[in-house]
């Protein structure tokens, strides 16, 4: 009996040690399996890109059963577009999303998206940007700089707001102090006679208020979410260029993720993309109506043919230069603005 008692006590002790070890090690293991990615962007908390970023984070969590978390930092909390892209490149920030023009200094071919009048409708732009023939190669262009593009979301078709009246004809741009999105668009508007200015989005409102600018070009959704209607009077729906919103991650950080987390992140980026595009399509009419209610004057039916003549010339020159030799380096001071 004595030996039986000692055997039972020994088994009990071993069992309790195993259980105790499992209890003390299970919690750290669960914590270690949770991956956190930080995502920075310059949009406001009411912007479609921020709401879509939250949808992406939610989807990533659902697909990974809570083991992949994306923390979203809006309103330039972690820096403007230029800083966020530089930090993602350096690996001190995991992810960012910025207008495709902001990446041109790292990948010159991304300028092709913003060429004036390249796309006629949002669906046409989406089809090309989602294709393996145009969009996917462009997403991979930044890999050499250590950044992996995940998906093209939407900044949208650009319009002009001004305090100097509508811009219905090319002559209306002459002498206009105009903030533009990138070097490609700056070249186009300089040819129309405008004085183009590069400026981060976060500085735009105060610059217009202080009369340092006459006009600016941004999609309607950003014009609205940044409350530029408080400092601008005229809106011309020019749709002169389409800008994509590139969602990107540090390439080494992506490669370090498990295959399951990589797939969850890629699928979540597509979910956020589709959510944002749908939101933008549904809200444009209501935004125009609300701008009018805020006493902005809106001109929607612009005759674009005179503008397209110049756009065709510029696009032809771009592709001719590209086919005839290596793409010339782009000056980051003119190319990297914000959206």
Rg calc? 25 Å
Helix content: 40-55%
Strand content: 15-25%
Major sheet, described briefly? Answer: 10 strands, mixed
Shape: globular
If classified by CATH, what would the architecture be? 3-Layer(aba) Sandwich
CATH class: Alpha Beta
N-to-C span: 83 Å
Uncertain spans, ≥5 residues at pLDDT below 50? 1-32, 327-338
The CATH superfamily appears as Bacterial extracellular solute-binding protein, family 7
Number of strands: 10
Q: H/E series, N to C?
A: HEHEHEHHEEHEHEHEEHHEHH
Could you tell me the CATH topology label.
Answer: D-Maltodextrin-Binding Protein, domain 2
Number of helical segments? 12
Structural class: alpha/beta
Mean pLDDT: 87
Describe this structure in words.
This protein is α/β, with parallel strands linked by helices. The protein has a single domain (33-335), classed as Bacterial extracellular solute-binding protein, family 7 (D-Maltodextrin-Binding Protein, domain 2, 3-Layer(aba) Sandwich). The chain is built from 12 helices and 10 strands. Strands 1, 2, 3, 4, 5, 6, 7, 8, 9 and 10 form a 10-stranded mixed beta sheet that branches. Helix 2 (48-63) packs antiparallel against helix 10. The model is unreliable at 1-32 and 327-338 (pLDDT under 50).
């Amino acid at each position: 009996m004595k030996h039986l008692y000692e055997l039972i006590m020994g088994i009990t002790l071993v069992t309790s040690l195993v259980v105790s070890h499992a209890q003390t090690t299970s919690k750290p293991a669960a914590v270690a399996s949770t991956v956190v990615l930080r995502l920075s962007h310059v949009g406001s908390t009411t912007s479609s890109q921020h709401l879509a970023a939250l949808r992406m984070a939610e989807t990533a969590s659902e697909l990974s059963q809570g083991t992949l978390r994306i923390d979203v930092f809006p309103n330039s909390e972690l820096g403007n577009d230029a800083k966020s892209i530089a930090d993602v490149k350096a690996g001190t920030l995991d992810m960012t999303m910025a207008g495709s023009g902001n990446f041109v200094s790292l990948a010159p071919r991304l300028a092709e998206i913003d060429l004036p009048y390249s796309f006629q409708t949002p669906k046409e732009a989406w089809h090309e940007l989602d294709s393996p023939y145009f969009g996917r190669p462009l997403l991979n262009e930044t890999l050499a700089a250590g950044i992996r593009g995940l998906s093209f979301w939407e900044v949208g078709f650009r319009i002009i707001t001004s305090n100097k009246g509508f811009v219905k004809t090319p002559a209306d741009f002459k002498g206009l102090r105009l903030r533009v999105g990138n070097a490609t668009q700056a070249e186009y508007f300089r040819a129309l006679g405008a004085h183009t200015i590069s400026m981060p989005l976060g500085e735009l409102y105060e610059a217009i208020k202080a009369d340092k600018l006459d006009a600016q070009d941004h999609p309607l959704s950003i014009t609205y979410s940044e409350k530029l209607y408080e400092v601008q009077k005229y809106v011309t729906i020019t749709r002169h260029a389409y800008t994509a919103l590139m969602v990107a991650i540090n390439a080494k950080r992506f490669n370090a993720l498990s295959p399951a987390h990589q797939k969850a992140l890629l699928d979540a980026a597509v979910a956020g993309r589709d959510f944002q595009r749908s939101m933008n399509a549904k809200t444009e009419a209501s935004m125009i109506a609300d701008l009018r209610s805020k006493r902005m004057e809106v001109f929607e039916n612009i005759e674009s043919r005179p503008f397209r003549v110049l756009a065709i010339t510029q696009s032809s020159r771009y592709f001719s230069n590209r086919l005839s030799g290596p793409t010339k380096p782009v000056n980051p001071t003119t190319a990297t603005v914000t959206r």
